[in-house]
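TICKET: design request
STATUS: open
ATTACHED STRUCTURE:
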């Protein structure tokens, strides 16, 4: 029988299946962060310890400060955040977990360092108490977020009870035009199918436009699969993935590499494999995308205009659009390029990788930012790489803050907030009310588009600056 990539991974990890579909699945890798203390606490209350310490990895990322990191923990001004960072370190010490703390050169955002260190590999099941765990699927893994009770089960047993999701293949045909990135592709997908379009499904992204993306671009696409309602996002591994992984710290070595590579090459969906649903897009027709509302599906090409809510056929969408326009202080018919921007942020597990930093630097070089803006690289290692390439000097010369690695302004849990009423061009993944701070207004876009907003003070088609 022809199988999808997801079915191959799922079938190879099933331990037990009950009547009714409940399945006990083995979990290969699990990540924890500062917010995982509830699960560790529940485990300790029962007198348990982590069952498979070597298959669990911890990183401080959500609450760590991105300014003043040379002062270590003292840079964390919030007492609760400081306690959570310390508690993660203690839980790792007690349970024997690898811990990439604030002073570790391998520290970074969990969904950035997983691939970066080679912990993320094709064919694995990967979990984390964070919805954007879907990011790791760009390397051909089945990766998904968990709740606190599920995390406790994984820590205690390295297994998890699940119901098998359905499958959705999103095929992006054609050739992407100059300046079109993975962020533009995934925003276009979400705009087409909606934030509930993939509910109950694992998305496999496929097609020539997807295959043409760099690994960084693929990570961005899978990162936002969750914003389309997907349980996970996946892309079939290929030579680009294998070359990326080879030699990384946790990647297989020697004969183990050869065996792993042979297994990985068998993972892509078979010809004739059946998906529960299929969606197609024309990648050659895509423009740079950005959001105008308070949901990732409220996105348009940069050449577009704010829609009239009354033109939307669905009553719920009309109601949400009306509320979004009021919150965002925008009017129907307004050109997106007429929207003024007050702040800009580049970073997050969506767009904080080296390709993203290079794209921003290409726009900022020789220009000055008209607005307060900051860049937080996805990992400490990426920060060092960017500095070795001189990218940080371009940012600083443009008047942009160059900060340390962390989740930063994506979730605004570490003090990196956008003031109330101000409008931010953000490379993160969510734009609901208050995501970047109470009253903050967020427009999601690519790093190059965010850099264009920095130097013009408004939404700008970056292609007009780069000649693409």
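STATUS: resolved
RESOLUTION: sequence designed for all positions
ATTACHED SEQUENCE:
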């Amino acid at each position: 029988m022809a199988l999808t990539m997801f079915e191959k991974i799922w079938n190879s990890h099933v331990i037990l299946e009950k009547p009714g579909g409940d399945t006990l699945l083995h979990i290969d890798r699990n990540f924890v962060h500062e917010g995982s203390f509830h699960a560790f606490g529940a485990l300790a209350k029962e007198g348990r310890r982590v069952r498979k310490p070597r298959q669990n990895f911890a990183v401080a990322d959500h609450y760590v400060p991105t300014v003043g990191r040379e002062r270590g923990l003292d840079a964390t001004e919030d007492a609760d955040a400081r306690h959570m960072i310390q508690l993660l370190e203690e839980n790792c010490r007690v349970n024997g977990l690898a811990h990439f703390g604030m002073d570790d050169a391998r520290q970074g955002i969990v969904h950035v360092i997983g691939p970066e260190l080679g912990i993320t590999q094709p064919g694995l099941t990967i979990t984390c108490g964070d919805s954007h765990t879907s990011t790791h699927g760009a390397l051909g893994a089945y990766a998904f977020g968990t709740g606190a009770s599920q995390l406790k089960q994984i820590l205690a047993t390295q297994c998890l009870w699940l119901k098998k999701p359905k499958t959705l293949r999103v095929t992006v045909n054609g050739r992407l035009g100059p300046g079109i990135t993975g962020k533009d592709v995934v925003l276009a997908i979400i705009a087409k199918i909606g934030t509930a379009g993939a509910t109950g499904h694992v998305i496999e992204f496929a097609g020539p436009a997807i295959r043409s993306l760099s690994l960084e671009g693929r990570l961005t696409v899978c990162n936002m699969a969750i914003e389309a309602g997907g349980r996970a996002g996946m892309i079939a591994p290929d030579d680009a993935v294998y070359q990326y992984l080879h030699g990384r710290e946790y990647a297989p070595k020697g004969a183990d590499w050869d065996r792993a590579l042979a297994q990985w090459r068998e993972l892509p969906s078979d010809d004739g494999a059946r998906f529960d649903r299929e969606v197609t897009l024309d990648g050659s027709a895509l423009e740079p995308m950005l959001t105008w509302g308070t949901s990732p599906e409220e996105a348009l090409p940069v050449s577009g205009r704010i829609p009239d809510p009354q033109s939307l056929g669905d009553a719920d969408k009309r109601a949400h659009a009306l509320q979004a326009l009021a919150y965002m202080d925008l009017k129907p018919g307004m050109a997106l390029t007429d929207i003024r921007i007050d702040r800009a942020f580049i970073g997050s597990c969506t767009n904080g990788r080296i390709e993203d930093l290079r794209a921003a630097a290409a726009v900022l070089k020789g220009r000055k930012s008209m607005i307060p803006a900051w860049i937080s690289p996805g990992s400490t290692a990426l920060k060092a790489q960017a500095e070795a390439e001189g990218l940080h000097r371009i940012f600083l010369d443009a008047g942009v803050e160059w900060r340390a690695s962390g989740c930063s302004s994506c979730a605004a849990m570490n003090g990196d907030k956008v003031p109330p009423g101000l409008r931010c061009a953000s490379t993160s993944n969510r734009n609901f009310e208050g995501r970047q701070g109470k009253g903050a207004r967020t427009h999601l876009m690519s790093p190059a588009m965010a850099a264009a907003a920095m130097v013009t003070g408004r939404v700008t088609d970056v292609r007009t600056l780069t000649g693409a």
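CLOSING REMARK: The chain has a mean pLDDT of 96. The longest strand covers residues 166-173.
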